[in-house]
Design a protein that fits this description.
Layout lengths: L21 H10 L14 E2 L11 H8 L9 H14 L3 E5 L2 H12 L5 E4 L4 H9 L3 E4 L20 H11 L7 E4 L12 H14 L3 E4 L3 H11 L8 H9 L4 E5 L10 E5 L2 H14 L10 H14 L2 H20 L12 E5 H4 L9 H13 L1 E2 L1 E3 L1 H4 L15 E5 L7 H16 L8 E5 L10 E4 L4
Parallel strand pairs: 1-10, 3-4, 5-6, 6-7
Antiparallel strand pairs: 2-8, 7-8, 9-12, 11-12, 13-14
Helix pairs in contact: 1-14, 2-11, 3-11, 4-5, 4-10, 8-9, 12-16, 14-16
Length: 461
């Protein structure tokens, strides 16, 4: 018989996790104001809130930590990190930051001004937040197929060039400081962008003289999908694909807590020396000196090693196979999910799962809360709460998709954990018709409300 697939690593250290009763979870989530971010980690059995900084580092990364150079300026660990980044991406100028949103804050302080328009493929929460904080506007130009979870398209993260053209015709070059391409595209379900689409975006940008910036937190996963889904790349290595992808951009921001497989860190990498020099001023003001930028030397050393590991096919195949395993479990149980499965998470279609809950009562958040109460599994809402309010009207923005993201940390959980998550969702799915009401907001921050929102349950009798 054909031998089954096995992970290319073995477990050397464990961390205990604790189960709880349903009554305990009901009390805890009520005290947390029905905000899953407010839960204590000890109150969570399987934590699928995020893959950001939650992965397990390798023995080589832990070894690198012990050799980290903590010099304030000119750190050897920075040189190592910069050399690795430049080798992978081709970008000669690198600025470290403490995480991805900090990289956005620094770079956008240079590029974005009030009244600007930034098109892209479904900007994620911090990206949109930094844009709107500067009184600019983010426009979603993702292809329409991304909004249909039942439709198969191998690259649902793609940008519709026609939509880009419409933005340009309405606003003109002077109001478009950059195009942001998120690889993979988190808000559409961890969906990749094809190399062909990246070429089309580059051609559009060159035609009108607009820079292209990648939000590259999961660039290695994007390269894996190009290799496995896009014709002509079957025999390319991951690093060859990565280099070709970044050759089509002018710069990038990176949350290294994803495809860098570290617990903290980020960076900006650029081709343009003038933008780099302007960015150094903001980096020093907001983050730290230009050779540490909010990161310790040990973290930079671990990141350099993590980037090497994350761009191997063996690691990526193991990573994405686990995501696909959970996705197939849910699909086989009839649970509606975004298809094809993405790279870092499975996204449950809450609109199809809970059709009786009004959109104004936060469908995806309702489902995420049900999952926690049922099982102790913490997921995250990617829907109306995250979409926030329109800056002008202050009305809720209702996105095309209301999804619960089951985000799988790297090298942390086993197949048994995935089986547990699938069984918990199946239990809820079997009683879904009894869930007819959701939640209302008691308190919300003026921007990026989902992190600190307080909710109360709506009861209908």
């Amino acid at each position: 018989m054909k031998l089954p697939y096995a992970e290319p690593y073995k477990i050397k250290m464990i961390e205990p996790i604790f189960s709880s009763s349903r009554s305990e979870r009901e009390q805890w989530i009520k005290k947390a104001r029905y905000n899953l971010f407010n839960l204590k980690s000890r109150q969570v059995f399987i934590d699928l809130l995020t893959d950001s900084g939650t992965g397990a580092m390798s023995q080589e990364q832990w070894s690198a930590i012990m050799s980290g150079d903590e010099s304030y300026a000119g750190s050897r660990s920075f040189d190592q990190m910069q050399e690795t980044i430049t080798s992978l991406t081709g970008f000669p100028y690198v600025l470290p930051t403490h995480q991805g949103r900090a990289a956005e804050n620094v770079l956008f302080s240079v590029l974005v001004k009030e009244g600007d328009v930034i098109p892209g493929n479904a900007h994620f929460d911090t990206t949109k937040g930094h844009i709107e904080f500067r009184k600019a506007s983010a426009f979603d130009c993702t292809i329409d197929a991304a909004g249909d979870t039942t439709r198969y398209h191998p690259f649902k993260g793609n940008i519709d060039i026609g939509k880009l053209e419409n933005i340009y015709q309405v606003f003109g070059k002077h109001r478009i400081p950059m195009i942001i391409v998120t690889i993979t595209c988190n808000s559409t379900g961890g969906q990749p962008v094809s190399m062909q689409n990246l070429r089309e975006i580059r051609a559009f940008a060159d035609r009108y003289g607009i820079p292209v910036i990648f939000d590259a937190a999961r660039f290695a996963e994007n390269a894996y999908f190009i290799k496995t889904r896009e014709k002509g790349y079957e025999d390319h290595t991951i690093r060859e694909i990565v280099r070709e992808m970044f050759a089509l951009a002018d710069g990038m921001t990176m949350s290294s807590k994803k495809d860098g497989i570290v617990n903290m860190g980020g960076f900006i990498a650029l081709r343009n020396k003038a933008i780099y020099q302007e960015s150094t001023t903001f980096n020093i003001m907001f983050e730290g000196y230009i050779t540490y930028g909010g990161m310790s030397g040990r973290d930079m050393a671990a990141l350099a090693q993590g980037l090497e590991e994350a761009t191997t096919f063996e690691y990526l195949e193991s990573r994405i196979r686990q995501v696909q395993y959970l996705g197939q479990q849910l699909h086989d149980k009839g649970i509606p999910v975004q298809e094809p499965f993405g790279g870092h998470a499975i996204f449950v279609d809450a609109n199809r799962f809970l059709p009786h809950v009004p959109r104004a009562e936060y469908i995806a958040q309702t489902l995420a809360l049900e999952l926690y109460i049922e099982s102790g599994v913490r997921a995250v809402e990617i829907g109306t709460l995250l979409a926030d309010r329109d800056p002008e009207t202050r009305e809720n923005r209702y996105p095309r998709l209301e999804m619960v993201r089951l985000t799988i940390p790297r090298r942390v959980y086993t197949s048994n954990h995935m089986d547990y998550v699938a069984a918990a969702l199946q239990n809820i799915y079997l009683r879904r018709e009894t869930i007819t009401s959701g939640y209302r907001i008691r308190y919300e921050a003026p921007i990026m409300r989902h992190f600190t929102v307080e909710l109360e349950k709506i009861s209908r009798r």
